[in-house]
Write a structure and sequence with these properties.
It is globular, with a radius of gyration of 22 Å. Strands 1, 2, 3, 4, 5, 6, 7, 8 and 9 form a 9-stranded parallel beta sheet that branches. Helix 8 packs parallel to helix 10, helix 12 packs parallel to helix 13 and helix 13 runs parallel beside helix 15. By secondary structure, the protein is an alpha/beta fold. The structure holds (3S,4R)-3-hydroxy-2-oxopiperidin-4-yl beta-D-xylopyranoside (XIL).
Length: about 375
């Protein structure tokens, strides 16, 4: 007599329900990476190496959705060179070791930036132009030499343009942001960083990354003008720049205009450069609807408009700044988190890794392009 098959721990009802559910479950829908790829786009996301190692659901989400990675912290100056000459690539290597066998390239972020810039470097750069240039050259050379086989795309300078009057963080004067390298070397520090990177690596993609140029406000308009004039000057001076990265930390509070943003992308591309979207996420407004589906719908509409505009302008590469709300800087960083106790829902996946309306809006934008 054949043994009777028994499910000792499941009541018959629950067992049948689970079996039924397993049968009814459709094959998992393709991730954003695959959907984008089918139309010639690349989709990726900022990743935290620590979470890849400790949260299997997080790693699975990246495996499913992200065709391209960018380290959220692990390639910043303060991580790679916390003390002068003491380079540490361990955290960055952990991300590369995860991505490489899975065929997921990593882009670099960021060589020269005024944040995540350690005190020793700030002090050294303030000693004078020769020292400042030497500190920059040593960092660029060592980082690019070490990563050259595994990272082929770097944000060389991040956030070089000053915020205009009217914005959240205006700067009183000057079109370039007041940074340690600007003070030491003047505006040519940007050209210098790109030339140093090119000297180190003749085929690396060199990117100028910027924020605050996406929306339809007077101060974003002014920042677009400043960025375009910076880029045009670099091109005229034959500075080796390949692409402009648009961060796209969008805010629902601000108006967004499809034709304005499409036009701006077109103006950058008319200079012979690629334009990529490097850090997309969406900050909800101060007052949000009570129910989450309604909130998610608003975020999704903004994502749809933004992608439509970017795609129309010729952007082919999109990264979100994280994938899942739970670990988004919009939730964890006090400067940008909500003050009403709610959490921003500005990424494609919610805190439990469920695909939200924003995910579907992005999938549609890629699939219908
Ligand atoms: C942010 C990280 O997400 C935060 O966790 C960190 O505290 C600060 O930096 N523009 C950039 C990114 O270029 O490097 C920033 O990342 C977000 C804004």
């Amino acid at each position: 007599m054949p043994p009777v098959f028994r499910r000792p721990f499941l009541g018959a009802g629950l067992g049948a329900a689970l079996a039924g559910r397993a049968r009814a479950q459709p094959a998992p829908e393709a991730g954003l990476h695959a959907i984008a790829r089918a139309k010639g786009f690349t989709f990726g996301a900022a990743v935290q190496g620590g979470l890849l190692a400790t949260d299997p659901s997080y790693a699975a989400a990246f495996e499913r959705e992200a065709g391209l990675l960018v380290p959220e912290f692990e390639a910043k100056w303060s991580v790679l060179q916390p003390r002068e000459g003491a380079f540490d690539f361990a955290l960055l290597d952990a991300i590369l070791d995860w991505g490489t066998p899975r065929g997921r390239p990593t882009r670099g972020h960021a060589l020269v930036w005024h944040e995540a810039f350690p005190a020793w470097a700030r002090e050294a750069v303030a000693e004078g132009p020769a020292r400042a240039r030497a500190v920059m050259a040593a960092h660029v050379a060592r980082v690019l030499a070490t990563t050259r086989l595994r990272i082929r795309d770097w944000d060389v300078v991040n956030e070089a343009v000053a915020d205009a009057p009217g914005s959240d963080t205006p700067q009183a004067e000057g079109e370039l942001r007041d940074t340690p390298f600007l003070r030491a070397l003047g505006p040519s520090y940007i050209d210098t960083a790109f030339r140093l990177a090119r000297e180190q690596d003749p085929t690396l993609r060199l990117v100028l990354n910027e924020y605050g140029v996406e929306e339809d406000t007077p101060w974003a308009e002014e920042k677009r003008r400043r960025l375009l004039s910076l880029v045009r000057g670099m091109v005229r001076r034959r500075v080796p720049i390949d692409a402009v990265g648009i961060q796209a930390h969008l805010q629902m509070l601000r108006p967004f205009s499809v034709p304005v943003f499409t036009g701006f992308v077109g103006a950058l591309r008319a200079e012979g450069l690629s334009v990529i979207v490097t850090e997309l996420d969406i900050r909800e407004g101060p007052a949000v609807p009570e129910d989450e589906p309604a909130r998610d719908q608003l975020v999704a509409e903004r994502a749809a408009a933004f992608l439509e505009a970017a795609i129309a302008g010729g952007v082919r590469t999109f990264l979100t700044w994280g994938l899942v709300d739970r670990y988004s800087w919009l939730v964890t960083e006090p400067a940008v988190a909500r003050r009403d106790g709610k959490r921003h829902r500005g990424l494609p996946l919610d805190g439990d890794y469920n695909r939200k309306a924003m995910w579907r809006a992005m999938a549609r934008a890629f699939a219908n392009a």
